[in-house]
Amino acid sequence: MEKEPAKEQFLEAVGNFQFRGILRGTQPYGNGHINDTYLLTFEIDPGATEKIILQRMNRQVFTRPAELMENIMNVTSFLRKKIAEQGGDPERETLNVLPARNGLPYFVDSAGEYWRAYRYITGTTSFDRVERPEDFYESAVAFGNFQRLLSDYPAATLHETIPGFHDTEARFRTFQEAVKKDVRSRAGSVQKEIEFVLAREELAGVFNRLQAADEIPLRVTHNDTKLNNLLIDNKTRKAICVIDLDTVMPGLAMNDFGDSIRFGASTAAEDEQDLSKVSCDLTLYEMYVKGFLEGCAGQLTHQEILLLPMGAKLMTFECGIRFLTDYLEGDHYYKIRREHHNLDRCRTQFRLVEDMEKKWDAMNLIIRKYQ
Ligand code: ADP
Ligand code: GN1
Ligand code: MG
C-alpha cells in the first residue's frame, strides 16, 4: 500500500491546477481502495463555493497514468456528446476532468506522483451499501446503459490500463505464486482459504475457455462496477453518473454484471467479520438482472445473458482471490484500515461464492424469466 502524500506534495498539486477562488477546505473523501481522493472547497465569490475532487493516482496500480488519462479524456468526451444528444446534462452525467495549469489533464509533482482533478458532482451520493433496493435497480440500469453508450466506442484506441485485469486464470496463477513465495509467512494461517481456491481451479478458467473458443464477445466495459463507483441523485434517486473510469477497457459484459452483484447483492459489507451475516440476496439479484438488461437494451447475446450468473460467481471468486493474494503478499495493492483487512474481505467473498453455489439453480431460473 502506498504512503499518504506529504502535505507539501498535496499543496504543490493544488497550486498546479486551474482552480478558481480561495481554498477553504480539504478533506480525504470516499471509500475507494485504490487512489487517494480529496474533496476541496473553494470560495469563488463571497458566500459562493465550488467543490473539486482531487486525486493522487495510484502509481503502483496504474503504471502508465498518462495513457490512463488519455482513455478518460476520450471516453468522457465520447459520452458527453451522446449524453447531450439524448437531452441529458453532460456536466452531471459524466466525469469532467479539470486541466492542470500546464494544460494537461494531470499534474506530475516533484516526487513524480500523478494528480488529477474532477468537477465534484453535487447533490449526489455514492453508496457503500444498498440502503434502498430501488437504488440498486437504478444502478443496474445505469451500468447497463453505460455499456450500451460505449457499444460503438473504438475499442482498439483504448489503452489496457491493467493488463489481464479480469483474466481470472492469470489471477489464479498469481495467487499460486504468492502461496509458494509466502513472503509474509501467512500461508500457514490461511490454509482453509487456500484450499477453497485450489478446489475451484476449474471455475477460474470458465470465461478464458469461452473466449478462446470465440463464444463470448469483448465489449468496452467498465470493469469495476461496484455500487460506490456510481453517483445517485439525492432528489430524484436516479443513478446519474458512472465514475471511477480507470479500468474502462475491452472486457466482458458478464463481469460488469457480476462485480455489481458481488458487492451490492451481498447482505453484508465487503469487509464484514461476522460471516453469518454474509449471503447473496436473491431479491436484490433479481432487481439487478432486470435493471441491467433494461440498461443494455437488447445488446447482449443469448449466451451472454445465460452467463450472467457465472459472471456473478466468477467476479466474486476472482475478487476473493485478489484480496487473499494481497494478504499473502503483504497488503501492497489495496488500502487497508486494519490488520488482516484483506483477509476479512477475502472471507466475505468466499462465503458469497459458497452461497451462490447453493443458490445456483435459483440464480439461473431468475435469468430465464428475463431473457
Ligand atoms: P478509487 O479508484 O480509489 O475507488 P474513485 O474514483 O472511485 O477512487 O473515487 C473515490 C470516491 O470519491 C468515490 O467512490 C466517490 O464517493 C467519490 N467521487 C469520485 N469522483 C467524484 C465526483 N466527480 N463527484 C463526486 N464524488 C466523487
Ligand atoms: C477496487 O478502486 P475501487 O475501490 O473502486 C479494485 C476493484 C475491486 C474493488 C474491491 C483498479 O475498486 O477491481 O473489485 O476494489 N479496483 C482496481 O472492492 O483494482
Ligand atoms: Mg472507486
Q: What is the H-and-E element order?
A: HEEEHHEEEEHHHHHEEEEHHHHHH
Number of strands: 11
Overall geometry comes to globular
User: Kindly state the mean pLDDT as a whole number?
Assistant: 97
End-to-end CA span: 42 Å
Structure commentary:
- This is Aminoglycoside phosphotransferase family protein.
- Pfam families: APH.
- The chain is an alpha+beta fold and 371 residues long.
- 45% of the residues lie in helices and 14% in strands.
- The protein contains 14 helices and 11 strands.
- The strands form 3 sheets. Strands 1, 2, 3, 4, 5 and 6 form a 6-stranded antiparallel beta sheet that branches.
- α4 packs parallel to α10, α9 runs antiparallel to α10 and α9 packs across α12.
- The longest helix is centred in the C-terminal third of the chain and has 22 residues.
- The chain is globular and about 60 Å long.
- The termini are far apart.
- The relative contact order is 0.13.
- The mean pLDDT is 97.
- The protein binds adenosine-5'-diphosphate, 2-acetamido-2-deoxy-1-O-phosphono-alpha-D-glucopyranose (GN1) and magnesium ion.
- The site of 2-acetamido-2-deoxy-1-O-phosphono-alpha-D-glucopyranose has 13 residues, from loops.
- The site of 2-acetamido-2-deoxy-1-O-phosphono-alpha-D-glucopyranose (GN1) has 13 residues, from loops.
Task: Describe the structure concisely.
With 371 residues, the chain is of the alpha+beta class. It has helices at 7-15, 65-85, 90-93, 133-149, 168-181, 191-198, 201-204, 206-212, 253-264, 282-296, 302-306, 308-329, 341-358, 360-370; strands at 22-28, 36-45, 48-56, 97-98, 107-108, 114-119, 124-125, 219-221, 230-233, 239-242, 249-251.
